[in-house]
Design goal:
This protein is mainly alpha-helical. 57% of the residues lie in helices and 7% in strands. The chain is globular and about 50 Å long.
């Protein structure tokens, strides 16, 4: 069975998280490519570039899901891999020039787009690890959600062959949802609640619904 990402991040794969979690519509004023959001000044060209990168990320993943989780073609896998690689390299350049793109620079939608790209930079685990402190700071400052933080924390741990903390990383095997090893599973829902996440039962139910899996399993 072909699987693009063994460790499926269900919300980020399926939905434009940077749209769903966006702020109220910003107020645009004519100003040489600068967007004024409330009292903040946002770099509109950079924000738009990040959103375009995230849209390309989501478009290929929608193709993959619509093709069927058990019948993904090598061509789609290669296309997704190339998009991820391009997005990762460009985000590195952006961070080198501007630093981590926080809400003051690109607005909340832009931050979510940048985070999505980091989440899908699996071929550059060192980059994901370097971004973890920045993502934690973004969470502490309210730029991203607990779900966003949990996804990257777990993703990095699993890539390092360690147990995840929040249970966000799963495999789909023969139509069944398998949660990858979790540290102290008896306290899993408590940790998830602290980040504002649903229970694991609700999370798995959502995965089954999105992938049209038999919920009787």
């Amino acid at each position: 069975m072909h699987v693009l990402k063994k460790y499926v991040m269900i919300i980020n794969i399926l939905f434009l998280a940077f749209i769903l979690g966006s702020c109220a519509a910003p107020q645009i004023e004519p100003s040489a490519g600068i967007l004024h959001y409330k009292e903040q000044t946002v770099n509109e060209p950079l924000r738009n570039e990040l959103l375009a990168m995230a849209i390309s990320d989501q478009k290929i993943r929608r193709k993959i899901i619509s093709s069927g989780i058990d019948s993904i073609s090598d061509e789609l896998l290669l296309e997704a891999r190339n998009i991820d690689s391009r997005n990762t390299q460009r985000l590195k350049q952006i961070i080198e020039e501007f630093g981590w793109p926080n809400c003051d620079v690109v607005g909340k939608e832009g931050v979510s787009a940048a985070l999505l790209i980091v989440q899908h930079s699996d071929r550059d685990i060192n980059f994901q690890k370097r971004m973890l402190p920045k993502i934690k700071n973004a969470f502490n400052s309210g730029d991203i959600s607990g779900q966003d933080l949990a996804l990257l924390v777990d993703r990095v741990l699993i890539a390092a062959d360690e147990m995840q903390i929040y249970g966000s990383q799963i495999e789909i095997v023969n139509g069944d949802v398998i949660v990858l090893p979790v540290s102290e599973p008896e306290d899993l829902d408590i940790r998830r609640k602290k980040l504002g996440l649903s229970t694991m039962i609700q999370y798995i139910k959502l995965i089954r619904q999105v992938y049209n899996l038999d919920e009787s399993q």
